[in-house]
């Protein structure tokens, strides 16, 4: 194949950016991997310790429980957000009044930072709901949920509240591509309601489902802001996600290298999950498409 | 027959409308309403939290404004967001253009494409510890530094978005301009960049929302009070707000307000922008 | 087209605003500006921010050539460690004599103040406490002890009077008091366990008295375990929880302080640092403190007291800044300023000749004068050992209805595991 000429300008557009990216993104990443094999405290002398940090992770209850919690949380948030946003998108896609206004209202949370939303909801859960709960005599609501085993539920609610907007919008875009004449045909076949949704609508918006699952799955595995605002990882370590753990312990001298190892492990897990998700979902999409 | 069917459908849709309004009011507007009335009250009006305040009281806002040094924090956050936005749009779209158009001609561009795309899988938390260490060497723990990092860190996602879009722009367009004597930079400047507009809107919104609302990166990088962002300032002042919830909520609202105003003005544009990019892929 | 112009104008505005507000400069702010030495003081005690600011203002009036800014924020320990990691040490640090101090000191970023003449001004015993937490217990003053705290039980005198109970001296009396208060319809304790650290004071009071002396050293060498020595501590710790208000695990420090100040409970297990918070809510609150009655031997129960605030100077700061920092410490150590600090904070002073005579802590005076004082055991635990989270989990088990025996065993096992995990070396 004859090589076409490539103008220098194209190199100018990419190479400097690539170099900067390497220095400030890839290089720290490599360094992190490097640290994970040492006992460095972030200052002073260090030694290589081979795989010690990694082996230790599997014996450390804090780390294991934070991984378990993060998976549980990410799974619940991903499923919750996607189911609710799909319902919401279908509702908003129906022939309703004030459609644009309603769409605008439901998209609003996307614009607001999770930290502040977390603070507002923390107040609601720890001061308003117990007050309302005890005046109505509802035992389950009269205590601050954030101080119980169920502390993760308020955190989940905030996450869903904020995450719903984006996914709904994506599903809406998907639903708008669905040809309404298909519905008419379906209703002639007697397919209505849920059946119609599963048989006709869902397969058509499957690609959008894939986007949403992958994006939200990855996001929620990284959850940080909402915990910092609402529970600070507690009570105990009940809502400590991996991100929170790395932040809280990573800067503590003895654990700088150790938490670097944890971060590397997190990276591997994210890659594994993302690839797996893409594979499974794409396969399913193909099958649906047939 | 037809008439009856239509009428019943009309009725059904009204129910959906009502339900949607009900949930919008309860779930979305409710918490914000609470935040607003609490911010407008004085502590002694708090006995009935849900009730409207007796009179409009903006003292909390004034106090929060002074306490958190709002104008400076606002200026910082705006600076980061706007500068990041401008640089991101120009540099990242140009890089994506060069990569997409030359992927088949030179291996290096193809390699760069995969390099950036694979970097999307590296979450910030993984870089955090070494990056904080590096911040000392490169002097990044200030506003300029963090803005710079945002521009660099947005690259993988934006390359992904832009290249997908550029693929759909026919190469013939470039060729025609080239024959007219335009340099690659001119082609990009006058032909490609304007065509990219829908995707640029997406990138603009996604990256602005990211930088405006980000908390973790400012938390670990910006320690000097003068350089803090609005989000970080809320975290920092959390301890000092104490049980002065009225004051705290006024402060939260001051952070949310610019975004709310911006959203009300550009709402349509924002919603279509977010969809354009995300769905294109 | 107009849109473009508008955007251009906004952009220009933003850029100038940004540069004017000083984004241009590095955050390692220049050591001098307008001929003034610039100092940053980092305080890990948000409660004392107001007092410190007052003293700083006074100092700046006396020293026109020095400009000081105060940084005081939530979760200060983590923030400080983050700043250590990026080598951005504040010029002066006002912090507790705890594991975070040990970490800064062993990282070698603190200035040795042994020869500055400050050490003669403070009490020997507190200086010793600082030496104790130095790496290898080096006898050098990298931090000057300034204020000390006292942790025990804070009680509402009015409620005690109404319920007809007296200050308990022993554990048995203590439990009787709780029973009587409960019977009279009062909530004995206001606990604020939503903030994890609030679970520590009760542990700290008991863990120095109940287990045999020398535990911390023996544990460090791995000669003993929490499980072998802290069973009684845990039993009593759980007893206390029985007398706490409803939903104590969901009560934050701030909310709980407000509730206690309003008289919702008779006692709170806190230190003197909480008093200024109570007074913020209720100026007229009638309170006092007593030593936590850990055991039935009244004489062996102690007030837990440690270095609440020590002053350290960064050796990373410029020479001018170091000099200015020393000047500030000298100013803080002056009798009237030290007095002002402890009066506003209801703390005790490490400065010789400065005494606390506020009524709200009067109950502790005798114990302190007679030397029934012990340091916070958690100051000797390794940094990164999150005992607060463990105790919060224990309280969570308690509210979930786990049996006492099971909870004690689980918690102490966790204590040991985490202790070993924190010592990854």
Automatic annotation (TrEMBL), chain A:
Q: Kindly state one GO CC term assigned in the UniProt record.
A: plasma membrane
User: Which PROSITE patterns does the protein's record reference?
Assistant: ABC_TM1
Q: Which GO terms describe its biological process?
A: transmembrane transport
**Keyword entries, A-Z:** Cell membrane, Membrane, Transmembrane, Transmembrane helix, Transport
| Gene3D superfamilies reported in the protein's UniProt record | MetI-like
Annotated membrane-spanning segments are 9-30, 73-92, 104-125, 151-175, 196-215, 256-278
Give the domain of life.
Answer: Bacteria
Domain ABC transmembrane type-1 spans what residues? 67-277
Give the membrane topology. Multi-pass membrane protein
Q: Give the UniProt subcellular location, in the record's own words.
A: Cell membrane
Keyword check for Disulfide bond? no
Q: Does the keyword Membrane apply?
A: yes
Its family remark reads: Belongs to the binding-protein-dependent transport system permease family.
Q: Which PANTHER family match?
A: ABC TRANSPORTER PERMEASE PROTEIN, INNER MEMBRANE ABC TRANSPORTER PERMEASE PROTEIN YCJO
**What is the protein name given in its UniProt record?**
Sugar ABC transporter permease
Specify the taxonomic lineage.
Bacteria, Bacillati, Bacillota, Clostridia, Lachnospirales
TrEMBL record, chain B:
Q: Keyword Chloroplast on this protein?
A: no
Q: Where are the transmembrane segments?
A: 15-40, 77-99, 111-131, 143-166, 187-212, 245-265
A Pfam entry, by short name = BPD_transp_1
Q: What is its main location?
A: membrane
Output the CDD domains linked to this UniProt entry: TM_PBP2
Q: Which GO terms describe its cellular component?
A: plasma membrane
Where it sits in the cell: the answer is:
Cell membrane
Q: Which GO terms describe its biological process?
A: transmembrane transport
Q: How does it sit in the membrane?
A: Multi-pass membrane protein
* Presence of the UniProt keyword Zinc in the record: no
Q: Where is the ABC transmembrane type-1 domain?
A: 74-266
Identify the Gene3D superfamilies for this entry: MetI-like (1.10.3720.10)
* UniProt keywords, alphabetically: Cell membrane, Membrane, Transmembrane, Transmembrane helix, Transport
Q: Which PANTHER family match?
A: ABC TRANSPORTER PERMEASE PROTEIN MG189-RELATED, ABC TRANSPORTER PERMEASE PROTEIN MG189-RELATED-RELATED
Q: Hey, which family's this protein in? A: Belongs to the binding-protein-dependent transport system permease family.
Protein name (Swiss-Prot/TrEMBL): Carbohydrate ABC transporter permease
Organism name: Anaerosacchariphilus polymeriproducens
Automatic annotation (TrEMBL), chain C:
Where does the protein end up?
Cell envelope
Q: Which is one Pfam family of this protein?
A: SBP_bac_1
Keyword entries, A-Z: Signal, Transport
Signal sequence coordinates: none
Major place of residence? other
Statement: the UniProt record of this protein carries the keyword Lyase: no
A GO CC term assigned to this protein in UniProt: cell envelope
| InterPro entries documented for this protein | Bact_solute-bd_prot1, SBP
Task: State which residue ranges cross the membrane.
Answer: none
Q: State the family named in the UniProt similarity comment for this chain.
A: Belongs to the bacterial solute-binding protein 1 family.
Q: Which PANTHER family match?
A: ARABINOSE-BINDING PROTEIN-RELATED, BINDING PROTEIN COMPONENT OF ABC SUGAR TRANSPORTER-RELATED
Q: What does this protein do?
A: Part of a binding-protein-dependent transport system for a sugar.
In Swiss-Prot or TrEMBL terms, this protein is called: Probable sugar-binding periplasmic protein
Q: Which organism is it from?
A: Anaerosacchariphilus polymeriproducens
